[in-house]
Design a protein that fits this description.
Blueprint lengths: L1 H30 L14 H14 L5 H27 L1 E2 L9 E2 L3 E2 H26 L4 H26 L2 H18 L9 H14 L1 H14 L2 H9 L4 E2 L3 H16 L2
Antiparallel strand pairs: 1-4, 2-3
Length: 262
């Protein structure tokens, strides 16, 4: 029983790493720069690992690939929707948004993503997993125990560091907002936050006006936002607050400042 559970966990880690590699490569190519595309700091996206393992456990006994495709597409979409909803409730932020795609549900899932997940499900269940299962069956039990124990410890530590790093995200954005308002007063300008885009344009203009101002704003971002918070803003182009348009304006401003530092 323990060995079977550890094999499942090892598959989860492996597919999570593959998912991270896929996400990071795709986003890096479209962004034309390297992006560590993952909620965690380590090289893995757990949502891919969970989806793949569930697909293997639930769909391996189905012979018809069309049924596997439909079930994988539906199951992965449910998992993605629930994950999006859970992260939003936990951090008051939305990490991805498919509203710019046709046939989406509240921007959390879309038909294109479901199609990709369905095809990936067939590939994993029918082609990849039989090989993976054969390889992992060759690992001696003592080595399997050690490897799984190490991976579990690293995963728990990464989750704790990530959650701690994202704590107080909105409070830190409030501090940045206060800094923007203070600078506006000193510059003899008003800074209305009701509409986010003027804020973004105004701060971009300030930052581009002189190297001194740019360095000042970059320092404020580094001081007020944790490394984890800055990495999330940089890695998720559609990261947005669900509570305030002001926060979204500040997030976009921070994203622009981070781009100019690379």
């Amino acid at each position: 029983m323990i060995v079977a559970f550890e094999q499942l966990f090892l598959w989860f880690v492996g597919y999570s790493v593959i998912g991270w590699a896929y996400e990071s490569t795709f986003v890096s190519i479209t962004s034309r720069r390297w992006v560590n595309r993952g909620f965690l700091n380590g090289p893995l996206c757990p949502i891919y690992g969970v989806g793949a393992v569930l697909g293997v456990v639930l769909l391996s006994g189905i012979a018809n690939p069309v049924i596997v495709f439909a079930a994988a597409a539906f199951g992965a979409s449910v998992l993605e929707y629930v994950t999006s909803w859970g992260l939003e409730r936990l951090f008051h932020a939305r990490w991805w948004d498919y509203r710019h795609y046709r046939f989406n549900i509240q921007g959390r899932v879309c038909l294109l993503g479901a199609t990709v997940f369905g095809a990936a499900g067939v590939l994993i269940v029918k082609v990849v997993q039989p090989l993976v299962q054969a390889w992992t069956a060759l690992i001696p039990s003592p080595l399997l125990h050690a490897v799984c124990g190490l991976f579990a410890a690293l995963l728990v530590a990464d989750i704790m560091v990530t959650i701690r790093g994202m704590a107080g995200f909105e409070e830190n954005l409030d501090k940045l907002k206060a800094a923007v308002q203070e600078y506006a007063v000193r510059a003899g300008e008003s800074m209305p936050f009701k509409d986010g885009q003027p804020v973004v344009r105004r701060m971009r203009a300030w930052s581009e006006s002189s190297q001194e101002v740019f360095v000042r704003w970059r320092g404020a971002v580094l001081d007020m936002l944790s490394h984890q918070q800055r990495r999330m803003i940089d890695a998720f182009p559609r990261l947005s607050s669900t509570t305030s348009d002001t926060y979204n304006a500040l997030i976009e401003t921070v994203r622009n400042l981070l781009k100019h530092t690379k």
